[in-house]
Amino acid sequence: MGGPAMRVLRWTLAGVLGLQGLAFALHPAGADKAVPALLRVALGLLEATGAALFLLPRTVRPGGVALAASLAIAAGLHLWLAEWPPIAFLVYLAAIAAVVEGQRAAGRREVRHG
Question: Domain residue spans in the chain?
Answer without folding.
Answer: 3-113
